[in-house]
Design brief:
The complex is a heterodimer. By secondary structure, chain A is an alpha+beta fold. Chain A contains three helices and 16 strands. Chain A is 29% helix and 27% strand. In chain A, the strands form four sheets. A six-stranded antiparallel barrel of chain A has the order 1-2-5-4-3-16. A six-stranded antiparallel beta barrel of chain A has the order 6-11-12-15-14-13. In chain A, helix 1 runs parallel beside helix 2. The radius of gyration of chain A is 29 Å and the shape is globular. Chain B is an all-alpha fold. Chain B has nine helices and no strands. The chains are: A alpha+beta, B mainly alpha.
Chain lengths: 346, 173
């Protein structure tokens, strides 16, 4: 019993110290365990599928209906947004600034959820054979999902952004006031206005009952309004202001938070709904401008450490099916990648 | 040579490790997907607690230590932490013979459920002790209750399995 206690204390201390010994021990145990785990996953998958089918059918039907409505609402906005993103990427590329479009990526399927109540992880079906390394950011269509924490040849573990161990530098983009926005696109006429329509010139000889030299009366018909989407953009003088902070997962029952944001004179007060995106930088775990979420509400805090803000994540972390791994390894993870990467026996 | 190999394979400690591999794999695969009331079933703790309740504290602690290490490979918590807690659960299950003279199947099940609940409650405490954020508060009580209730049911088929795994094959005399 004493030996067991000493052994666990020794291993925990090694792991917390960040030494290669603990990583090697984890690699050896993982290498022995992985083949059994892989076989068991294949064997037990039908049971898990039946469980989900029985337990989640009604909720899925309801969710499907809501999502259909949302998709219909957002189709128009998505087209305008896509055009805007493309324009932004072109501008960044033109100025030699890094963009997400320039980073290669690998798509993967989520094959397993976290086997614990205290850690938020998922397992994906791509690994080091696909170029995935420890530290690479993982996203889906909605935004940032997490980062790679362990890699084997054909699978990897993703720590989700809700995990209490996850942190990344972010920036809050405080949007300009709505008053500063201008609408661009086709000018819509007043629906009640009337206008004179000029008839096209036609051969008068073919019109029955027409007398040459007669004056054609101006007709007054209301104009038909076509629903063309217009885009609202900030005026040139109203630039977005940014403030950087640290985004941290808060675990099982809490939404993530952003810390170290100060209401400076230039930045003003953080508004509810302001978007949170990754800050990037040489030391950051993710490239810049990956969407994470929006500010849900501020959490008051005394002292000089700045306010904390609760964040509503845009990605639905409870229903992940497919994810994209950016083949971008942060500088901070390059040294640690070798011992942390465990390759199981084929 | 073959005799020695057979003896090794039929050794109770070899069986403990082999069964722990299966239990650990079930924990990280099946019980990662099948979540009653949104809670992860603590199957690894059940194995450790039953080993303790049936074969004593020391055996329970060793079983918990082995299965905990396997479980640790799938978690983001410090390596060895779940092994430590699972070893405590196994040792805790081993307290049953001190409380009950001739444990019946239902008292073993009950002891396993209580030890599981204790393990679920102890894990965030252990994380705090080593400085790792657990991100969990009062909800851990609900998790412990669900884990204990599920393990109470799962222990019924698991008792014979654990008895077989750790039975001593040596014949008297």
């Amino acid at each position: 019993m004493v030996l067991l206690a000493l052994a666990t204390v020794f291993v925990i201390t090694l792991d917390l110290g960040g030494g290669a010994g603990a990583a090697a021990a984890r690699g050896i145990v993982s290498g022995l365990f992985s083949p059994v785990e892989r076989v068991m996953r294949v064997v037990t998958r039908p049971i898990g599928d039946v469980w989900r089918a029985v337990g989640e059918y009604d909720a899925l039907l309801e969710e499907n209906q809501i999502l259909r409505e949302k998709v219909a609402q957002q189709e128009g906005a998505a087209i305008a947004a896509a055009a805007s993103v493309r324009l932004s990427q072109e501008l960044l590329a033109l100025n030699g600034l890094p963009t997400l479009a320039g980073i290669n990526s690998v798509s993967a399927q989520v094959i397993g959820e976290a086997p614990s109540n205290l850690s938020a992880t998922v397992e994906i079906n791509q690994g080091s054979d696909s170029g995935i390394r420890v530290g690479m950011p993982v996203l889906n269509a909605a935004g940032l999902v997490g980062r790679i924490t362990r890699v084997e040849r054909e699978r990897a573990v993703v720590m989700l952004i809700s995990d209490p161990n996850y942190a990344v530098s972010v920036k809050i983009v405080d949007p300009p006031d709505p008053e500063d926005f201008v609408a661009i696109g086709p000018e819509l006429p007043d629906p009640g206005a009337t206008t004179t329509t000029v008839p096209r010139p036609v051969a008068t000889t073919a019109i029955p009952g027409f007398t040459p030299g007669e004056q054609v009366a101006a007709s007054t018909v209301p104009q038909v309004i076509v629903d063309v989407p217009s885009l609202t953009v900030p005026a040139g003088t109203a630039d977005s202001v940014r403030e950087t902070g640290i985004f941290e997962g808060m675990g099982f029952e809490n939404l993530p938070e952003v810390r170290f944001i100060e209401n400076t004179k230039r930045f003003g007060e953080v508004k509810v709904g302001s978007p949170i995106v990754t800050a990037g930088g040489s030391q950051s775990l993710a490239p810049p401008d990956i969407v994470i979420g929006t500010v849900l509400n501020p959490v008051g805090r005394a002292g000089v450490a700045g306010n904390r803000y609760v964040i509503q994540i845009t990605a639905d972390l409870k229903n992940l099916s497919f994810v994209r791994i950016l083949l971008y390894q942060p500088i901070t993870e390059r040294g640690a990648a070798a011992p942390a990467t465990t390759v199981s026996a084929p | 040579m073959i005799d020695r190999l057979l003896a090794l394979l039929t050794n109770r400690w070899t069986r403990l490790v082999l069964v722990a591999l299966v239990v650990g794999a079930l924990q990280t695969t099946l019980f990662g997907d099948v979540r009653p009331f949104g809670t992860v079933v603590q199957f690894a703790f059940l194995y450790a607690a039953l080993a303790g309740a049936i074969h004593g504290s020391e055996v329970g602690a060793i079983a918990g230590f082995v299965v905990g290490f396997l479980y640790d490979t799938a978690l983001t918590t410090p390596f060895g932490l779940t092994a430590a807690v699972a070893a405590l659960v196994g040792a805790g299950g081993g307290l049953l013979p001190f409380l009950v003279r001739d444990p019946t199947w239902w008292s073993i099940s009950l002891a396993a459920a209580v030890a599981t609940a204790g393990g679920v409650l102890a894990l965030p405490v252990a994380m705090i002790l080593v400085g790792a954020p657990s991100g969990i508060g009062g909800a851990v009580v609900g998790l412990a209750a669900v884990a204990a209730a599920v393990n109470l049911l799962l222990s019924i088929p698991m008792i014979p399995a654990v008895r077989w795994t750790l039975r001593d094959a040596r014949l008297p005399g």
